[in-house]
Design brief:
alpha/beta, 3 domains, DNA-binding, 434 Repressor (Amino-terminal Domain), 12 helices, elongated, homodimer, 6-stranded parallel sheet, Rossmann fold
Chain lengths: 340, 340
Amino acid sequence: MAGSTLRDVARRAGVSIRTVSNVVNGSVPVSDELRVRVQAALDELDYRPNLVARNLRRGRSGMIALVVPELDVPYFAELAREVITAARTHGYVVMLDQTDGDGERERELLGRESRATMFDGLLLSPLSISADELRRRTNRVPVVLLGEHIFNGSFHHVAIDNVAAARDATEHLLGLGRRRIAAIGDQPYSTGETAQLRTTGYRQALERAGLTVDEELIVPTPRFHRHLGAEAMERLLALPEPPDAVFCYNDLLAIGAMHTLARAGVRVPDDIAVVGVDGIQEGRYSSPSLTTVAPDKAAIARTAVSTLLGVIDGSAPAPTEAKAPHRLLVRQSTVATPAD
Amino acid sequence: MAGSTLRDVARRAGVSIRTVSNVVNGSVPVSDELRVRVQAALDELDYRPNLVARNLRRGRSGMIALVVPELDVPYFAELAREVITAARTHGYVVMLDQTDGDGERERELLGRESRATMFDGLLLSPLSISADELRRRTNRVPVVLLGEHIFNGSFHHVAIDNVAAARDATEHLLGLGRRRIAAIGDQPYSTGETAQLRTTGYRQALERAGLTVDEELIVPTPRFHRHLGAEAMERLLALPEPPDAVFCYNDLLAIGAMHTLARAGVRVPDDIAVVGVDGIQEGRYSSPSLTTVAPDKAAIARTAVSTLLGVIDGSAPAPTEAKAPHRLLVRQSTVATPAD
DNA sequence: GGTCATAGGTCGTTGGAAAAT
DNA sequence: TATTTTCCAACGACCTATGAC
């Protein structure tokens, strides 16, 4: 008895399909007598509305897609959690996909035969797709970008203030008396500009403190993964004059860097202080625990979802630039015994 | 020009809807002349098939749902990644939801007004829902369970051999000469039985080694989170005779336990060796890196997805019990300088 | 008798407008 | 006239049956 339809229920209750629909939806009043009769038939047949049919009729699927580079990167997993939660408060569910930072996959996702038409909108955390490419491909599907900017003004966009975040992290290190501060994670040739913005913030902090930037202390990494942080740290340790602090562009890089430091017997924070960005849970229980600039992920998710739903229902057509708050969480990787 | 349909294209090309459909799907041969003409119209109007309509007609959505307790728990994030990848090889996309281990939310998910009918099937990693409740609610929606067993034989199920995994972890510690081995993570009163199976494996290993189990070394935790592992470790350290090794039921508990050990100045592995379960990436870069029993998540995902698709297309009606492989990854938390 | 194209019905739901009470 | 209920036409793609060449 797989799947009874409105027609089945109507036949059993001896009423029209429309009446059953009215009982199910409650939009149009139905007399008590019929309501009871229909409800009984509904229960007996264990009727469940076919949501695909409903969506077709309504022109809405009630689903949005969230596309991130890698779901097993803690920041994205934690962000996804918040997005799912935020979407639910609006009655939406979330389809999740990952691109592995592969531009081809990002393109595919927006291509003609993609599943994109199944969703009312798309939250995209892009890595390598370019602005005009994205513009060309997103006709019709409402899109809100997360994190990466991709050219100003063309798309709705939610992120933290990356320059300020990087500056805050670097100034924290400066405030501890560190003067030879390295940076791990620059991506001067990336299409995305997150890394570049963080480099800007880092430079600003140093310059405001009257320090000159030592370019060999800026170690680029192609991605933000633990092992790349570990490798970058090795290079820094091999310098004739190693740093006394490191600003890592995300927490995974920082954790990789601390891994290298632990192996090398370098004390954190005594010899080298480490700070990251992302505020992932992993950093609370690492040894030492990790000082980090934590974006308000719940705020990002809420803003992104409500912006997207605004675009979907047509109430927010003009691209918006939303900045979510961030804050510095001071832990053992910079201060041996944090106040908190 | 939002959304042209087959009709629009047909009108523009001066052919019937069916012919356009044939060009789009390629199922029925179309003469070259018409094909070119139709293709031109397709391109001009930037036609994209409405997948909701297609799904309604085909009776398939091409989507499965993956429901996990918490997406920000690394094991589930990493598993989700593999599930998405596995689903894609079959042309399926994945809707993700999380229950927060809340039984109410698990029930809701299967209830009458749920979105479940939008999906061809459901991969569920249950926490607190019971067997008959699940049975009662899953009429019609094909389900495959991940991890938790929930009564034998009623559902398709994919997991590692939890007893063997726990035994392997414990025997590894025994093989290192440890004799006072604690266990963190038992859940004697849980509806799920994963924790209980791991306790069984732990006991088996000790008994086979001719040791008696010291019940005060088995510390239960309501969930598998870092802070609970940290608390459990504090209790163990407070014992008159603390353990010389700890088997944690998952990696997060182990990481929490190591956090406590680091604070207390206890050396790992010298004073206390630590082993976890899950093989999450976090453990590769923790200090010290974490020895763990790693389930083959890709295998779990592949098996689960293909089993589910089998149920969907009717080729695998009888509940199957699949066991995925696991292996011990030896790292610094048990052996100061691992071979690898 | 193939090949190729068309008309028309179907999937299950919803909404407008008419018809019953 | 007001309230219920019914009929019928969508939503957009797919497919069976039918016929033209």
